[in-house]
Specification:
Rossmann fold; 354 residues; disordered C terminus; D-amino Acid Aminotransferase, Chain A, domain 1; alpha/beta; six-stranded antiparallel beta sheet; single chain; five-stranded parallel beta sheet
Length: 354
């Protein structure tokens, strides 16, 4: 079951997908192919997804944390009369959310949550505070003057040892370390940039969630993370688990998130799933959910175009292993991009950082 995206505008919508070199960007481009006029954007001219569209539809962007990023994207969206913008990179989200009114005024729908909701997700300490009470989560404290500070605090940590230490911001497993004793806490940064968190030793799950504009959850698809590579699942099983789906939905409602996003859960020592983190953008394993019968890319774009979404989209259980797929080109075509990086003004060239 997939929506007819042309029904809303009387023509296929023009959709720009950023992060075209990543797995979620590629998934959106593949699933929207034939249903939309697609523009692929990335900061790197080697991004594989750029070559899933014709040359004139390949766009280079500045980094998401660069000054003027939102201006650059808005300029391109206006130039190409983009109807829907799908950002898939963490670093781009806040800038686009803060400029959401400007995109709306230009008639461009953006698949992004509010800035406040994003800030709660991108800072793991804010996430723990925002979800305290409604959502089961591991014992979590800041390491530093405002939290665990000194030998006595470390020895009294309610989560016990071994424990996990992780940066408050960042993605994947970068900076995460096992803390075996209170003495090890002294070796962590003491500037409130790290968290000390109860160890969750059980199975880890991801739940891909799709909401409509009001926040109503249309689908919540749990999957096990059986094997990962650089934080991206490469083998997993899609499951029917009302407990996992309900916990993910409660997290999404508590935070006020919208669109396509991912809630990561892990079982504690008692086997109960706990909130681990939230990725407030399309996840790298989204193709597993599509293979289970829930085409979140198409339904997400449909919702932004005003097409009514079903009350609920059910998924089927399956198991998936993933592999590399080549995009074979003539050597002259690699790096042949149809546009330059843009600043806030038409025609201004920025220095390359590819």
């Amino acid at each position: 079951m997939s929506p007819d995206l042309a029904a809303a505008l009387g023509r296929p919508p023009r959709v720009m997908v950023t992060g075209a070199g990543g797995p979620s960007g590629v998934c959106f481009l593949r699933e929207l192919a034939g249903a939309a006029e697609l523009y692929a954007a990335d900061i790197d001219s080697n991004g594989a997804g750029l070559y899933l569209v014709p040359r004139a539809y390949r766009l280079l962007l500045p980094r998401g944390d660069a000054p003027g990023f939102a201006d650059a994207v808005l300029t391109l969206c206006r130039r190409y009369d983009i109807d829907v913008l799908v950002p898939t990179v963490d670093a781009e989200l806040l800038a686009l959310a803060r400029a959401a009114d400007r995109f709306t005024d230009a008639g461009i729908r953006v698949l992004v949550s509010s800035a406040d909701a994003l800030e709660d997700c991108l800072d793991k300490w804010r996430l723990a505070q925002a979800c305290e009470g409604p959502v089961r989560q591991p014992v979590t404290h800041v390491v530093g003057l405002s939290g665990v500070h000194g030998a006595d605090d470390a020895a009294a940590f309610e989560g016990g040892y071994p424990a996990m230490a992780k940066p408050r911001s960042g993605s994947g497993s970068r900076g995460i370390t096992l803390v075996n004793s209170p003495e090890d806490v002294a070796g962590l940064p003491q500037d409130d940039s790290y968290l000390l968190q109860e160890l969750l030793p059980g199975t880890e799950y991801s739940v891909d969630v799709l909401t409509e504009a009001s926040g109503r959850v249309v689908a919540a698809v749990p999957r096990s993370r059986d094997k990962t590579d650089s934080g991206i699942v490469v083998a997993g099983r899609v499951l029917h688990s009302p407990e996992l789906s309900e916990l993910a939905e409660r997290t999404v409602h508590t935070l006020g998130l919208r669109g396509v996003l991912n809630v990561q859960l892990r079982e504690d020592r008692a086997g109960r799933p706990n909130l681990l983190e939230v990725n407030p953008r399309p996840p790298g394993g989204l193709s597993l959910t599509v293979a289970a019968g829930v085409n979140m890319p198409r339904w997400a774009v449909a919702g932004l175009l005003g097409i009514e979404l079903p009350e609920r989209i059910e998924h089927r259980e399956n198991a998936v292993v993933r592999h590399w797929q080549d995009v074979v080109l003539h050597p002259r075509e690699l790096g042949d991009i149809g546009d330059i990086r843009e600043s806030g003004q038409d025609g201004d060239r920025q220095g390359s950082d590819t």
